[in-house]
Amino acid sequence: MSKKKIAVIFGGVSTEYEVSLMSAASIIDNIPRDKYDVICIGITRKGRWLFYPGDTQGILDGSWKTHPDCCTAILSPDRSHHGILKILNDGETQIQKVDCIFSALHGRNGEDGTMQGLFALSGIPYVGCDTLSSACAMDKEVTHILLDNAGIPTAPWMSATIECLADLDALAERVRARLSYPVFVKPANTGSSVGVSRAYDDVSFADAVKHAFTHDHKIVIEAQINGKELECAVLGNHDPDVSVVGEIIPCNEFYDYQAKYHGDSQLFIPARIEEEASNRIRETAAQAFRVLGCSGLTRMDFFLRENGDIILNEPNTLPGFTSISMYPKLWDACGLPYPQLLDRLITLGLERAEDLHG
Ligand SMILES: Nc1ncnc2c1ncn2[C@@H]1O[C@H](COP(=O)(O)OP(=O)(O)O)[C@@H](O)[C@H]1O
Ligand SMILES: [Mg+2]
Asked: What is the pTM of this model?
């Protein structure tokens, strides 16, 4: 049987462009080549789509877009193409068929349903959550509303839109009345902790709000939860598997961008918690996966309070995907090595498409 062609898409117009390059390089290096051929498509920070024929080193060092054989390559929404439309440098167009898309685009314009909408139009199977679940899980306010509705515990929260910048004192008053300091202020739609800060009084709150609004026109404000930071990996479509629970000890005051990618944060797999708490987290992760309508994969992040309460912090429909990222490491600890995990994810994407069209 001929090998299936997997288009790996990376980069993108998002604050997580660099994280995407790291995830994509690992994915490309580890997709089992006895079963799959890989086609690399990079999206520049400005939104240009390019076919990239080079190696993963060029992706990691950011030079990929200057490769002399890069050419424009657009994912076609025309189902008869079922693939990428390449515009070669001499102007000739070529159709490159694709069997499944593996998007390594984190954050906005990648993890938020926009890309998934294009994949759905193209009729090409793809790895991971669909348009609606991606959009719901990306927006921290919508996630809170859906989880609250399902009775899944989240941090006490409120949201605000950009008009509130006109009267920050009034917003601070509402926050003090409903949540009390310290609070976390977050753009509704970013990831990798971009734009997230902790506020402990009116002055730091005003700074945190202004900063968050540089990333989004909606923000979410949450009461600070004290407890362990735990993550678990969900994998599957209808009746998903849930991994062991992992634990993070951020090297900074909280798990900010620096602590995630450039610091000495520690991971413990399995987490150093009671089995009973771990089971409750795993059950809640599967429940949240269903409530949000996820498919393929999602990493569910939690806090465990000292009194034993669990709080769901957030779902990540396209979590960090290097071989040392939590999602693949959790599966590795369960006996599913990274290349087999990628194979499983592609198979799940193909199966979902068959369920829909078969
Ligand atoms: N309510 C909260 N209480 C305590 N810490 C929080 C809270 N919300 C976020 N944090 C800290 O900030 C980090 C980033 O917040 P998160 O909501 O996960 O944003 P992102 O989607 O950018 O990862 C978390 O990993 C955690 O360390
Ligand atoms: Mg997070």
From this structure: 0.95
